[in-house]
Amino acid sequence: MKTIQLQTPGAFQEIEEAEPVRNSGKALVRVHRIGVCGTDIHAYHGRQPFFDYPRILGHELGVEVLEVDDNEAGIQVGDKCSVEPYLNDSDSAASRIGKSNCCESLEVLGVHIDGGMRPLLALPIDKLHIANDLSYDQLALIETICIGAHGIERSQLTAEETILVLGSGPIGLGAIQFALAQGSRVIVADINEQRLAFCRDVIKVHHTLKADDPDFEAQLSELCGGGLPQVVLDATGNRFSMQRTFTLTAHGGRIVFLGLLKGDISFDDPNFHRRELTLLASRNATPDTFKKVIAAVKDGSLDTKPWITHRLSLDAVPIDFENTISQPGLIKAVIEA
Question: What is the CATH number of domain 2-132+304-336?
Fold first, then answer.
């Protein structure tokens, strides 16, 4: 079958590979949609940690079940599913305490092992989340929203608190929408005015700031009544932005690093201690988060339709991928397989 493989940074190639063989406990699925994620873009540019080449990208997937064992976890041929792409060891210490998202031997589709930029996959049954009343477009966006939702879960944000979200790409949007849904006061900062306009006009965020404005910190303090937000969530993966969070968070507050940086960050320890800050990493998402996000999309409280601004076919990836991800108005691109 024809498959798209990232050979080296900046170079996709169409290859031929055998169709997957389904074993017991797995389902054979047809890939219909593939969301283009920041991870894919970082891998394309050679900036993705924990990554080797060549690699078949694609972990944000909307799929159709083609073949499965009878009476297997309620999944049937024809079911439409979102894929939880985090392949964990169920016996690992992390998995046993409900943290399958950060299992010690975790392998993520399209990152550590080959992913979904191909027509067929054989996937573990427990990694398929059925949602027959959602479109394949919606299913392909579930995973990216889960990343943001898990970041909000990690933050322990309450309705009485203010959160500053740095970065309004798809991962940031997921966090923003879940923060809004629970009634928290949300401030969004980005250097991209088009993304900020999307947040204001589509997501209905009342407070947005240009992160590169010389008066940014003064404007943030004014919005917080002279103080600072209790929670700062960084979805940029940018070193400067991540390091800046330590001066943007209120005393006793929490910082969540949702974006991933290839390299080190540093911070001023006296400032960290003086404010008694809590620093949290957020990695992937849990099965329960997938259920929560799917329910929110189903009931209409989370509308993903406006997110998709660009499309391309799987065949066109080697030629059109770079142009697509370089578009100034890009919010989210999906690949139609």
Answer: 3.90.180.10
